[in-house]
Amino acid sequence: MDTSLVVPQLPAREGVLLRPWRLDDLAVVEEAAGDPYIPLISSVPSNYSDTEGAAFIRRQWSRAADGVGYSFAIADAGNDRALGQIGLWPGPHGRASVGYWVAGSARGRGIACAALRTISSWGLEHLRIPRLELHVEPWNAASWKAAERAGFVREGLLRGWQEIGGERRDMYVYSQLLMDLA
Asked: What confidence score (pLDDT) does residue 74 get?
């Protein structure tokens, strides 16, 4: 059975485009590698080199090829420059996880919210996934505010939910259902 997934190109609001990763997206991987937080919560290398950056991009391709999930570059629709990453990871019981990061130079422009709205409607309507979930640390107000603006509903606090940077961290849990789409 072929379990490969196809990562499509999805136009979003706010001049954003979700598209498959390309090897010419190394600049955003390098910027993300220099961020103190992104390498802790993603597979972005903490010690950047072009070899490590290319390996990161190839891992994004393999996620779809292996049927694990969809990893998109969040790109500027005007110049096609990658600004971040968003992924949709289908799991058991009709649920999928969503995760995202935006490079520091692109923050504060509504990019995460636009990407979340797009991937959410695609996952709920096109892929027919009944429930999307995401987890955000309570201190990360920019991230949870983007989730709330995109229509995700905070369901609670999961104490000691995830290990990040060698310590257990609390996480807000958010969900979105088809009926939540605005």
From this structure: 98
